[in-house]
Amino acid sequence: MSVHDNMLTYGLKRGTTDELLFIDDPQVPNGLDCDCVCPHCKHDLIARNGGKKNTHHFAHASGADCGGARMTALHMLAQKILERDKVVMLPAYDTEYVTHEAQQKKFANVVLEQVWKDESSTRKPDCVCTQEDATHPLWVEIYCRHIVDPERKADIRRRGVYCIEIDFKDLLETEYTEQDVIERLTKDTEHREWISCPVWDREHEAKYKQVLAEEEREAKEAEELRAASKKEYQRLETIVNDWKQKRDEASAAKVIEEIKRKPFCAPYEEYEWCIYDILVPNGNWVDFAKHNPKTDIGRKVFYTLIHYYVRANFSHMPFDDYYWVHQKITDILCEDNNKRATDIQLEYLLVLWVLSKLEKYRTYKGEGALYGKTFANNEAVRNAVLDLIREGKCNWRYYLANQKSHDIITKNFTGKQGGDDVIAIIRICFPIKEETPSVGVPQLLEPTRYEKIGFDKEFAGVDIKKACAELNRAFNEQSY
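Structure (tokenized):
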């Protein structure tokens, strides 16, 4: 006996075209008296349902091996159940743009193998399900061994009909029951797909076109932004080039106006530009200071830019270490030249070095930018530092990083407007390396003094008292 015969559990009642009998139905007697034929080849069957050890099944009376018997039986059973119950689970509709959940659907009528003919082709779907109004019929294809091929799919879609395919192939390898087939038809949300669903296909197409239109709109906007960015860059470049050529009050005023209007942005991300990007390309402050005019007008542009940069709390771009700036300042000090340009160049370099120190301090202490702002904005701070450097008869870095210099600075600035700020800058940027502060050195950071000069108002949201306490602790521990 073949595997197919051993597993055939449904036979077709003789003299009918669609009445299937289960092997264990009471009306199916044992042997040839079952009065059943094979659903596939229509040859006589023998019912073997009287034993207690072997699985009950139908077998061909001739002993033939009919490979299509079990497939045809399952196919017919699924059709008859759908015709009887008129209930089917519609598959989910899930694409890149449209998603609908699977849902159970009850129909008014189900017709089996109805012929549908048009000018191009003739089709006979396994089941046609309709409602009372007979609009939008649903074709149901039962897949046991032969799937709906691409040609048939294309023709069904061309017709614009609704069609699903339900997969029963895996049940052929099991001892399925009628209840298994019912579950597959009405409750299982898997093992099925849409061959054609015009309304949702149109929805998918509409969503797809909408996405394409949105992408085109975004591309157009991006192109417009790039064009506007290019135009803005050219405008700012013209202002900067005019300043570089003329170096007068009028051209400097335009540069300063642009700095105040929009100090910093993220040009590479948002297609925006500000004058900082052109004055200090790639954040190279040293190169900017090198080419900026060594005049009071140039000095005004430089400090305006520094001021707004520090106000941004060093968040736009990290500073380099400026290692070689130390040596450059020392070289300038060794020159026998007291011209104004030399003084300003020294001042530029010193400011850059201080900023780089403050940037490192900010990384660990968080509030260093407060003092960077003070240094950049306070004329007394800059002049005092420059005077002390010029008076020094040794390397300026080591001259300021000792107790004597700190005592002089403390004496000169204590009690003066902004004096505590001056002292704080020196202590941060030039910490004492070999000696510890004497008992007579006053506490450098008093929160009440900052409040009196309005320091807390300028930096709203900054906890001045907390910042001062943290810095005092750091100074005493020499942990920077």
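The chain has 20 helices and 16 strands. The two ends are 92 Å apart (CA to CA).
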